[in-house]
């Protein structure tokens, strides 16, 4: 979830996406289950010489074009890269915080050429400290002082039955009605922080 744009491009380039084949096609599966659940349309940018741009309002039309070879895997991957980075950018921004960066560096340590973890001698943070839970957004509204933020009440299954207030930067990415009632992944043990005057007690990851 914290891959750089360069890493996203590299992984998509290697991703299996055989022309005309739907089975075991992870790129198509991502578009179907993630992109179309978050966005109203999916746009594939192409040169005029290659037929021009394509705009899909529902997945089945895209799959049909792919099966009939009217949509090339390379063009599909470039479009998925764009949408994936749109989803990851707000998360990357939040994780620029030095404390979170240190935590994620510990959770995802670098590997050497043999695939073994490169140790730095700093072992005071354990990856198990990441309290990641699945919750349900039971209420969501625009932040009164920030057009780019939502204020959500998330049910994380707390023993008391109380919901958690979480402020997220999804307002310019996902319509409110598409998020209300949805299951989301939440980093639940961040230190509470005020975002434009409202205390947020977690972070919605996806």
From TrEMBL:
Transmembrane segments: none
Keyword set, alphabetical order: Aminoacyl-tRNA synthetase, ATP-binding, Cytoplasm, Ligase, Nucleotide-binding, Protein biosynthesis, RNA-binding, tRNA-binding
Example of a GO MF term: tRNA binding
One of the protein's GO biological processes: tRNA aminoacylation for protein translation
Domain TRNA-binding: 126-206
Stored Pfam families: tRNA-synt_1b, tRNA_bind
PROSITE patterns xrefs: TRBD (PS50886)
Taxonomic superkingdom: Eukaryota
Family classification: Belongs to the class-I aminoacyl-tRNA synthetase family.
Protein name: tRNA-binding domain-containing protein
Source organism phylogeny: Eukaryota, Metazoa, Ecdysozoa, Arthropoda, Chelicerata
């Amino acid at each position: 979830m914290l891959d750089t744009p360069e890493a996203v491009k590299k992984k998509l380039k290697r991703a299996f996406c055989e022309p005309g084949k739907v089975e075991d096609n992870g790129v198509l599966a991502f578009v179907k289950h993630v992109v179309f659940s978050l966005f109203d349309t999916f746009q594939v940018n192409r040169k005029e010489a290659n037929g021009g741009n394509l705009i899909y309002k529902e997945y089945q039309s895209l799959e049909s074009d792919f099966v009939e070879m009217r949509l090339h895997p390379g063009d599909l991957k470039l479009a998925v890269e764009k949408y994936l980075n749109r989803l990851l950018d707000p998360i990357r921004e939040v994780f620029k915080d030095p404390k979170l960066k240190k935590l994620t560096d510990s959770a995802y340590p670098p590997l050497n050429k043999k695939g073994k973890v490169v140790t730095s001698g700093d072992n005071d943070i354990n990856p198990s400290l990441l309290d990641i839970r699945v919750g349900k957004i039971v209420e969501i509204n625009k932040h009164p002082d920030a057009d780019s933020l939502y204020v959500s009440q998330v049910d994380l299954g707390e023993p008391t039955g109380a919901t958690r207030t979480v402020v997220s930067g999804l307002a310019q990415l996902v319509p409110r009605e598409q998020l209300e009632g949805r299951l989301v992944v939440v980093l639940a043990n961040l230190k509470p922080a005020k975002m434009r005057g409202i205390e947020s007690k977690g972070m919605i990851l996806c």
